[in-house]
Amino acid sequence: MSLALTCMAGVALDIALGEPRRVHPLVLFGRWAERLEAHFNVAGRGWRSHGVTAWCLAVLPFTLLAWALASLPGIGWLVEVLALYLALGLRSLSEHLLPVIGALRRGDLEQARRCVGRVVSRDTGELDEQGVARAAAETVLENGSDAIFAALFWFAVAGAPGVVLYRLSNTLDAMWGYRNERFQRFGWAAARIDDLLNYLPARLVALSYALLGNTRLALRCWRRQAPQWDSPNAGPVMASGAGALSISLGGLAIYHGQEHVRPLLGEGPAPRARDIERALDLVWATLGLWLLILSLGGWLHA
């Protein structure tokens, strides 16, 4: 199958089926990662070298397995489609955010807080309507990059091995990439590798968001505001996305009981329920743009 058709097949499976309802392979991978961390980071004393070793043992065997299976004649194309499908999170993103939109529109703030609390790491118990909408919109823009477009990018670059390498690395960053006493040294490799793998996809996503929204404002916010954000990849994506939607994100957020005043992103009013939906629409439009580019690229190559 051509690259464009394989990507469309993987995306179609994600839209039709969503995440596996029983046991997602990433759940099993997470258990394996927990065992490795328990062995190499005893009492949170693992060094950077231990983190590198654990990362290699966690990621590389499955990447090589994906390469071997994708090389099999006759079924290699199916392995590629399934690998991409399992790496994508488009339907899951919509399924988690649509209940937040519905609760806000009904005026049920408590339910909206509970729903958004399932997909963000900040404390949501005291958020007002704007705070809930801000957390949800930020999640849509950032996870659109991480859970959809970076996976598509690495699949286009390196097929099944590329997307498996990316998705497992991204999972380890979510598990080990914390700047706390337990993971400061051990999780260094997982965080830096994820930053590296997301560097170019994040900027392509930021450009895509800008082209599909308020382009001039998005580019200005990207240039001026992204360097102030603590994440080198989330900054461009969220600044450009907020500018494209002409809304303001960032600001005060509470994580584990501690207040964090984050730089402002975008320009315009604070988000409301409709802006979460607009952010989702922007992600869908970006997906259409990427698939169109892949199709045109395949046609020109042919």
From TrEMBL:
GO biological process: cobalamin biosynthetic process
Keyword tags: Cell membrane, Cobalamin biosynthesis, Membrane, Transmembrane, Transmembrane helix
Keyword RNA-binding: no
GO molecular function: ABC-type vitamin B12 transporter activity; threonine-phosphate decarboxylase activity
InterPro entries xrefs: Cobalamin_biosynth_CobD/CbiB (IPR004485)
Similarity annotation: Belongs to the CobD/CbiB family.
Name of this protein: Cobalamin biosynthesis protein CobD
UniProt organism field: Stutzerimonas kirkiae
Underlying gene: cobD
